[in-house]
Fold this sequence. Notes:
alpha/beta
Amino acid sequence: xxxxxxxxGGTGYIGSHTVVELINAQxxxxxxxxxxxSYASVIDNILKITGKKPAFEQFxxxxxxxxxxxxxxxxxxxxxIHFAASKSVNESVxxxxxxxxxxxxxxxxxxxxxxxxxxxxxxxSSSCTVYGQPEKLPVTEYAPLQTPSSPYGNTKQICEKIIxxxxxxxxxISAISLRYFNPIGAHTSSLIGELSTGTPDNLVPYIxxxxxxxxxxxxxxxxxxxxxxxxxxxxxxxxxDIADVHIKAVERLLGNKNKAQxxxxxxxxxxxxxxxxxxxxxxxxxxxxxxxxxxxRRPGDIxxxxxxxxxxxxxxxxxxxxxxxxxxxxxxxxxKHYRPVNI
Length: 343
Ligand code: UD1
């Protein structure tokens, strides 16, 4: 058995897939999650997939007292993968303080605990939202950052900055931020996937829910963009490819292979697909015709973005391998498997 890794937000969408890959790679895992947007049953499903039940502590990271108790109980943590955060772009516009309080306090408390309990490494869950609409595509890590269009996006950018400043002030702490593009898809077992509570904001859960009949039609937000078919372009990436890159990032830190105390990498496939291409691919892999209507643009949406992934490919020795068909097929299988038994 290798080192023990703390995964905050480990019952969430990307967190749960990462826990599975960590266990598969023989790591000992402990999860902290407040279950504000996930379910304890995810732990049982991780057990079904891996044959191992990760340790689990339920609390919110803003509670410093509980975090102290946690680190007094688990004295053998080698690294932290920090996912736990509120993540709805729309909700963050309506409730900015909830987002600033939760996302920033969690991150600050964890960094404090890292100093206090001598945990040297953190991998942080960031987002391509920090680039806004880049001038040059594919976007590299050195593109200028722009003010994100939502409080959610701001919290990602501010957390990155806080983490960087802490690594500058403290030579015992090193960190890697992973800037995800658009994570979609689910585990091949269909036991874990993206659990959208309420109406989903994101494209693929909305598509699969429309496909299965929960939503009447998909609203396509704009077809008058300057793209080949007029719809927005994104770099969609399979959630298991994202999970895999966390293992690489943790191993880079644990093996002292990082080239700076603070590093950041794009995590995408390097290929952009339009909203319309996603719809067509969904129809192909599911064999279902999707109801959709073209509506006006959604405020805050950027026109097009895809990643230059060469830095992550080289430095992390990682490359995304799963294609759009597989992403949408696993998302669809998850939708079909999950709905009838759980809702
Ligand atoms: C958003 C966040 C990003 C986050 C990602 C995944 C911003 C600006 N973006 O990305 O940080 O990582 O979610 O959680 O903060 N669309 C439709 N109909 C729908 C839903 C979406 O046409 O019902 C279109 C959108 O207009 C967009 C594309 O699909 O062009 C992707 O949208 P979405 O899945 O919400 O992701 P992003 O906004 O790209």
